[in-house]
Each structure stands twice: as structure tokens, then as C-alpha cells.
Amino acid sequence: MEEAKTSNVDNLKSHLGEYVNTYVQLTKVKATQGISTAASGAVIGIVALILVFFFLTFVFTGIAYWLAVVFNSVAAGFFAVAGFFLLLLILIFVLRKKVIVPLIRNAVISKVYG
What we know:
The chain is mainly α. The chain is 96% helix and 0% strand.
């Protein structure tokens, strides 16, 4: 009877050690997966942001020159585009607490817990 108890305790210790080892390895794999997903998302986001920046720069430069032809003044065309950006900036500033911050907060929360 004593040998059976000792055998069971040794068996339990062995299984417990394997369980802890497996749990540690699983935690490492999950952490590595999370870090690699975040890193790849960051790289894709940065590249997309750079491409969007250049795209918008050329589009709005083209619009500014088109408006320059319409207004017969290069300065007026570029000031019209600058005024558009000023309106966007004011809109973002006015809506930041009621719309923009909750939108970003909810997106982050759903990404982390969803």
C-alpha cells in the first residue's frame, strides 16, 4: 500500500511538472504570437500611412493647381486648399471629446477584448 501511494505521488509529481512545463511553453507561444501580430500590424500601418500621406499630398496639390486655374491665382488655389484643411482641423477639435475619443477607445477595447 505504501509503495502504491509513493508511486502515485511520484506519478502526480511527474504529471504536474509536465503540466507546468506545457503551460509555460503555451504562454510563451501566445506571447510570441501577440507580439508578432502587433509588430506586423504596426509595419503595415506605418507603410500604409506613408503611402496615404503621399497620395493625399499629390491629390491636394493637384486640386490646389486646378483651383489656381479656376481662380486665376496660384495663391488663391493653395489658400483654398489650406482653408479646407483648417476646416477639417476645427472639425476634429470640436468633435474630439464626443465622437473621436470614444470611437478610438471603443476600437481599442474591442481589439483587445474582442
